[in-house]
User: Which sequence fits this backbone?
């Protein structure tokens, strides 16, 4: 039976995890290259991933949408909104839509408590028929050479069908808390992932599989190994931002939903 104190503690922990999820993401964007704008507490990417954002807990949105301030942004620029507060979220959403921003795509913030994680062996039994053909030839390797980073960027770009600036990935990879992972099947690079450790909360980013390699259980196999790596890194939680297409996989691995992320684009 849960006591009032335990309920309060659980709520506090969930609020902490909500902030930790977004803080991991925005700190990674900073590593990739960003600059403060002259308005409020907004920051903007200098290159890819072309984001303009407020850190968790900031809500001064209206200044961004003054015409002269929009001129500071490179076009196109994506502004992500997270459902931190119903009132703040609604206010910013209205301001964006009234200023010509369009909803580009949606994501779901999710987390996995590594203390509660069911081992990959247990999960593999459920999906043995999917993964068995990959058992002998599937390898995940951490990479750091300039040549491998070029390969990683190329695979990620093809997986997500958008351009990625290699310079942004190089800047992120220079941080010792960032790990770039490249997955191989029969020695062919087919999938990517990026890990970023912030105070035992490990963010998983850019999990992508080449289009011609999908439907073979590669993403599941990769994520099983990623979670094992996070345990080996002494992480407490794994966080990510799931696409609509990828959400089902993460739910099946034990990830829990936190809140929605709505990405608006300004074409200029």
Assistant:
């Amino acid at each position: 039976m849960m006591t009032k104190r335990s309920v309060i503690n659980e709520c506090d922990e969930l609020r902490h995890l909500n902030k930790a999820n977004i803080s991991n993401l925005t700190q990674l964007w900073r590593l990739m290259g960003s600059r403060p704008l002259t308005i409020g507490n907004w920051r903007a990417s200098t290159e890819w991933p072309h984001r303009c954002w407020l850190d968790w807990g900031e809500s001064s949105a209206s200044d961004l949408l003054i015409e002269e301030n929009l001129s500071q942004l490179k076009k196109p620029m994506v502004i992500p909104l997270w459902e931190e507060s119903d009132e703040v979220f609604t206010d910013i959403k209205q301001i964006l839509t009234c200023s010509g921003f369009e909803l580009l795509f949606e994501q779901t913030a999710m987390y996995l408590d590594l203390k509660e994680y069911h081992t990959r062996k247990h999960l593999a039994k459920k999906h043995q028929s999917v993964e068995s053909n990959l058992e002998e030839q599937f390898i995940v390797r951490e990479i750091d050479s300039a040549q491998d980073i070029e390969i990683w960027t190329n695979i990620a770009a093809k997986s997500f069908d958008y351009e990625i600036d290699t310079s942004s990935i190089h800047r992120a990879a220079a941080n010792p808390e960032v790990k770039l992972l490249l997955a191989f099947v029969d020695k062919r690079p087919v999938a990517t992932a990026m890990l970023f450790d912030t105070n035992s909360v490990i963010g998983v980013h850019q999990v992508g599989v080449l289009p011609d390699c999908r439907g073979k259980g590669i993403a599941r196999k990769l994520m099983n190994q990623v979670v094992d790596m996070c345990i080996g890194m002494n992480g407490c939680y794994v966080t990510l931002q799931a696409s609509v297409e990828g959400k089902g996989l993460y739910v099946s691995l034990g990830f829990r939903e936190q809140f929605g992320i709505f990405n608006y684009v300004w074409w200029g």
About this structure: Residues 4-108 form one domain.
